[in-house]
Specification:
Blueprint (H helix, E strand, L loop, with lengths): L10 E4 L51 E3 L6 E3 L7 H8 L5 E2 L11 H7 L5 H4 L6 H18 L5 E14 L6 E4 L11 E3 L5 E2 L2 H4 L2 H4 L10 E2 L12 E3 L33 E12 L3 H10 L1 H5 L7 H53 L4 H85 L2 H5 L2 E4 L2 E4 L2 E3 L9 H22 L7 E3 L6 E3 L5 E3 L9 H25 L9 E2 L2 E2 L2 E2 L5 H25 L1
Antiparallel strand pairs: 1-3, 2-3, 4-5, 5-6, 5-7, 5-11, 7-8, 9-11, 10-11, 12-13, 13-14, 15-16, 16-17, 18-19, 19-20
Helix pairs in contact: 1-7, 12-13, 12-14, 13-14
InterPro entries: Atg6/Beclin (IPR007243), Atg6/Beclin_C_sf (IPR038274), Atg6/beclin_CC (IPR041691), Atg6_BARA (IPR040455)
Family: Belongs to the beclin family.
Pfam families: APG6, APG6_N
């Protein structure tokens, strides 16, 4: 088998009915055109061929795996080869590795003895002479055991090489490097492994999980290889397409080509795709099992080589290829002969044409009609050239007119589009203006409602409860039949003092002779000399004089507020007249309970009129 130099020619064990394969580097030859397998192969059935092996990614190694013929489907077995698994892997991979320790002893091997122990294909075997399968397997097993015992186990460091690819995405108007799209036909993906030929969108797709999940095997982390030719600081190598990377395989940066590196400005037009190589080193123990696992990882690389065929199929293919080559060679000779004859005929024709032209020129040189025709031909040629120049100018003008017309049409379309956009904006402005108008009407209505709303009417609610005047539900006055507690009376007087002080503050005026000190149930009145009088009582005789003086001073403040209201609004008339400590002709001083209660009711009525005036005016 020439496609895989690490494997010996196969021996046909048995012929099994299998469909012909459709994959390969050349066209499939029909099974009927191939010669049948030797009849002696049925006698050399091997224990390894207990069941047909499915056509999957299997690796042939020293007779331990089975292949089928690529053409006829016959079951094949590979003979033992003295080439070590390391050498087989090195022929599949172009990745160098190094040993951690050197051999302490040289491996003792007798190649001649091994060749005698190992079963080889002979001419007799090719001609159909078969040996006993059990003896062959025993001899091969003995040789393998001896070979494995003599082999020294050496730990090795193998670099994992992974290509990372990206492409330039300019769909948004700005060039952004994104991961390469998966293309199974061309074998392009974001990541591709140099060790095993697999591709994927992440490193876990190209490096087996059995290796990634064993951190003790790894000697380093993933690093960027900066030894590639024309790579930048990030290790990226740029190209116009992924196909251009094929010519850059294996190029590394050296002293000779360091000066020939392209600058980023020189390759700006070629920066459509890029890739870089990632390296991470791992250790293997050097046992046969480890190297065999490495060989299994190379299955993708192995399948890229020529698939195995049996001797009869290979001979038939060589015969057919030789026949096709002979036919192509014959056609090539015929084409060469035809080209030679055609060249000779052209040369003869040119030579005869020159001779005839000289003879005719000498004969018609003195003919006046011929000279006239030649002159006419010259003039016509000049006219034709002038017409052609004019045609070119007209064509150029026509193109300019067409270009101007196209520009005008685009301008018209742009104008209509802009007009539609402005119309849309106008509609939005109208809607917004209408919305603002509706909101303004609502706000005006709300303002009018708020303007008519009087907070003081809620804070200071003045009403009556029979003969008693009330402010915020507190009764003001005393009757023999209904003795009101002085605590309630003092609280009502405190509310009245606070109301009158609020009216003076909102109207921005000061009382002429007195000053109010609102303190709730313990409010006071200060006269013009600065003396304070308590506007609260407990019903005792000792504080009655000061309480009556405070009531008179408070009534004077009510009278000052009434004068200010009638001054600003002359049409305002209070229902009760206030003068000299009396209101409506009743004394405000504590004496007769009935008169005092009625006078307090009149005073609350006066305060309610003042409250209505201040709400309307301010």
């Amino acid at each position: 088998m020439s496609g895989n130099s690490s494997l010996q020619p196969p021996v046909i064990i048995t012929s099994l009915p299998r469909p012909p394969a459709t994959t390969g580097a050349y066209r499939v030859i029909p099974t009927s055109s191939l010669s049948s397998s030797p009849s002696s192969v049925h006698a050399s059935f091997s224990p390894y061929a207990k069941s047909p092996v499915p056509r999957t990614r299997r690796v042939a190694m020293e007779g331990k795996s089975l292949f089928t013929c690529h053409q006829c489907g016959a079951l094949l077995k590979f003979q033992y080869s003295p080439i070590s698994i390391e050498e087989k892997i090195m022929k599949l991979r172009t990745i160098p590795y190094e040993h951690l320790t050197e051999l302490c002893e040289q491996r003792v091997s007798n190649e001649d003895g091994e060749e005698n122990l190992m079963p080889r294909l002979t001419e007799g075997t090719d001609n159909g002479e078969a040996t006993d399968a059990d003896e062959e397997e025993d001899v091969a097993q003995t040789a393998r055991n001896s070979f494995n015992q003599q082999q020294q186990k050496i730990s090795a460091v193998i670099p994992e090489l992974v290509w990372e690819r990206q492409q330039l995405d300019s769909s948004s108007g700005i060039g952004v490097w994104v991961s390469a799209e998966l293309d199974l036909m061309d074998g392009i993906a974001t990541f591709s492994s140099c060790n095993r030929g697999d591709i994927g969108q992440n490193i876990a797709d190209v490096v087996p999980a059995r290796l990634l999940n064993k951190p003790h095997l790894w000697l380093s982390d993933w690093e960027v290889d900066h030894s590639l030719l024309d790579c930048d600081e990030g290790g990226w190598v740029y190209a116009a397409s992924n196909a251009h990377f094929g010519s850059l395989e294996g190029l590394v940066r050296t002293d000779d080509n360091e000066t020939n590196l392209k600058t980023p400005e020189q390759i700006e037009g070629e920066r459509l795709v890029r890739r870089r190589r990632l390296i991470r080193k791992r250790r293997i123990d050097g046992s046969d099992l480890s190297w065999f696992q490495e060989l299994l990882d190379c299955s993708t690389l192995l399948l890229k080589k020529r698939l195995p065929t049996c001797h009869d199929c290979e001979a038939s293919l060589l015969s057919q290829f030789t026949q096709v080559l002979n036919e192509l060679q014959t056609d090539c000779n015929e084409y060469d002969r035809f080209i030679a004859e055609l060249t000779d005929a052209e040369r003869s024709y040119k030579r005869n044409y020159i001779d005839i032209s000289h003879d005719v020129g000498d004969e018609w040189q003195d003919d006046p009609e011929l000279r006239a025709l030649v002159e006419e031909e010259r003039k016509l040629k000049l006219q034709l050239e002038a017409i052609e120049d004019e045609t070119v100018q007209v064509t150029v003008k026509r193109r300019e007119l067409w270009s101007t017309g196209m520009d005008l049409e685009q301008l018209i379309h742009g104008t209509f589009a802009e007009g539609a956009f402005l119309q849309h904006l106008l509609g939005l402005s109208r809607d917004e203006r209408q919305s603002v108008s509706v909101f303004a009407v609502h706000a005006s209505d709300m303002l009018r409602r708020l303007q008519r709303y009087n907070v003081c009417n809620d804070v200071f609610h003045i009403w009556h409860d029979g003969l008693f005047g009330t402010i915020n539900g507190l009764r003001l006055g005393r009757l023999p039949s209904k003795p009101v507690e002085w605590v309630e009376i003092n609280a009502a007087l405190g509310q009245a003092v606070l109301l009158l002080a609020t009216i003076a503050d909102r109207a921005n005026f000061e009382f002429s002779r007195n000053r109010l000190v609102p303190r709730g149930s313990f409010s006071r009145v200060v006269n013009m000399y600065g003396k304070e009088y308590s506007l609260y009582s407990d019903g005792g005789m000792f504080r009655r004089r000061g309480f009556n003086q405070a009531m008179i001073l408070f009534l004077e403040c009510v009278e000052d507020a009434g004068r200010r209201a009638m001054k600003e609004e002359p049409s305002l008339k209070f229902p009760y007249k206030v003068e000299r400590g009396k209101i409506g002709g009743l004394p405000i001083s504590l004496g007769n309970d009935e008169q005092w209660t009625r006078a307090l009711k009149y005073m609350l009525t006066h305060l309610k009129w003042l409250l209505a005036w201040i709400s309307k005016r301010y």
